[in-house]
Design a protein that fits this description.
Strand 3 and strand 4 form a beta hairpin. Helix content is about 50%, strand content about 30%. It contains 3 helices and 6 strands. The protein has one domain: Nuclear Transport Factor 2, Chain: A. Strands 1, 2, 3, 4, 5 and 6 form a 6-stranded antiparallel beta sheet that branches. The chain is of the alpha+beta class. It is rod-shaped, with a radius of gyration of 27 Å. The termini are far apart. Keywords: Membrane. This is Mce-associated membrane protein. Its main location: membrane. It is found in: Membrane.
Length: about 170
């Protein structure tokens, strides 16, 4: 076999292999990007779900079940929010019990939206309605809240690290 025939054979083989190798490389890169995007969407959903559930736990108050309330909030809290809650726990217990407070919250469909997520921290805007009864009301009184909730991923769980009221008129 002559040199030019060998050379032609190598060129033909390369012409066949190069597109295959490039296609496989492109597939690997696109698969990784798709997997990363799916993981990101899943993390967004987990943060949003956690913020929603923990906000409902924080807002679900019943003076007859105060220990359950405190336990639920503390289990879903971390950082500054947990510290603030623990510092105000005793006065809050007294206030809830003295006023015989009951609050039943609901978050309407599409009442929670992820504002941003950066790594292990996410901010969520929550619109919440609640019916409140206490010593001064004979029938449930409607309330509406707008909250910005920050959740932080700790040990594989998203926990509330900050909760603040948002002025809807601002």
């Amino acid at each position: 076999m002559s040199r030019s025939r060998r050379w032609t054979g190598w060129v033909a083989l390369a012409a066949l292999l190069v597109p295959v190798v490039l296609s496989v490389a492109a597939w690997v890169v696109l698969s990784r990007k798709a997997s990363d995007a799916e993981e990101s969407v899943a993390a967004d959903r987990a943060a949003l779900d956690a913020a929603t559930a923990q906000t409902l736990s924080w807002a679900s108050v019943d003076y007859r079940k105060i220990d359950d309330f405190v336990s639920r909030v503390e289990q879903g809290a971390t950082g500054p929010f947990l510290q603030q809650f623990k510092q105000s726990e005793q006065p809050l217990r007294r206030l809830i019990q003295q006023n015989r407070s009951v609050q039943v919250p609901t978050i309407p469909k599409d009442g929670a939206a992820l504002l941003e997520r950066r790594g292990s921290e996410a901010r969520v805007l929550i619109v919440m309605d609640a019916d409140v009864t206490n010593r001064s009301t004979s029938t449930p009184q409607p309330r509406q809240y707008r909250l910005q909730v920050t959740v932080t991923r700790v040990g594989g769980r998203w926990l509330t690290s900050n909760l603040e009221f948002v002025d809807a008129t601002a």
